[in-house]
Automatic annotation (TrEMBL):
GO terms for molecular function: oxidoreductase activity, acting on the CH-OH group of donors, NAD or NADP as acceptor. PROSITE patterns: ALDOKETO_REDUCTASE_1, ALDOKETO_REDUCTASE_2, ALDOKETO_REDUCTASE_3. This is Aldo/keto reductase. Pfam families: Aldo_ket_red. It comes from Arenibacter aquaticus. The record marks 83 as: Lowers pKa of active site Tyr. InterPro entries: AKR, AKR5G, Aldo/ket_reductase_CS, NAD(P)_OxRdtase_dom_sf, NADP_OxRdtase_dom. Belongs to the aldo/keto reductase family. The keyword Chloroplast does not apply. Residues 33-266 form the NADP-dependent oxidoreductase domain. It comes from the Bacteria. The lineage of its organism: Bacteria, Pseudomonadati, Bacteroidota, Flavobacteriia, Flavobacteriales. The active site is at residue 58.
Amino acid sequence: MDLKTITDLKGTFTLHNGVQMPYFGLGVYLSEDGEEVANAVNWALQEGYRHIDTASIYKNEAGVGEGIRQSGIDRQDLFVVSKVWNGDQGYESTLKAFEDSLNRLKLDYLDLYLVHWPVEGKYKETWRAMEYLYREKRVRAIGVSNFLQHHLEDLLADAETVPMVNQMEFHPYLVQQDLIDFCNKNTIQYEAWSPLMQGHIFEMDIMKEMARKYNRTIAQIVLRWDLQKGVVTIPKSSKKERIIANADIFDFELAPEDVKLMDGLDRGKRFGPDPDNFDF
């Protein structure tokens, strides 16, 4: 990763179709619909964020749309992401779920639409619908979430369009470097969810030491590590001060040996569900 490309909050990585995806965004999982999520989105956009990540299952798309409108930021300057939920997978049902998401957000198009989980027997038909939406220019990029290498290989065997993004649980205890390498080789942008290990990162002595070394918060260290790994990251918060602090990561860089040290913490540990074994 060329660190010169990681410049500021509005900086981007280029997807394989040429679309510029802001490499830092706001996640809104568990942010309550209505005022809570609308405020979080508005605060983030006022701070300079341009990437907002939601999903139909989060049940807060309407509030996300409200926050976007409150911000007054031009739509073309934003990167808005949503995801098709497992119960909506399949060809026709994915097309309907997409329209429902747009209606709740009150937007004309999405910048990125993701298949939320690899539902066995369904994700290929779901992907066919995503490809249709992409061809029709209803969405600027399409991708997947929680797809392991064998899911991706299965999808790629029939796909017309290579996914632009794979959004995965990613943090120092779950690096999955082989999967990152596979995605890089296939020009699939890797993206992190749960970068702060659902709060468990703050318990790690080694992270406390690194925060002292750089005079930064643990969250800032981890989020900077994500970007230096070439991984898009979307930390979630509904607290204004944390939204601002999380983004304050562009005036320092981690030494290569510290990136390597954090890579070495990998223990294959998930805090979220296993993409090979989920029942929802």
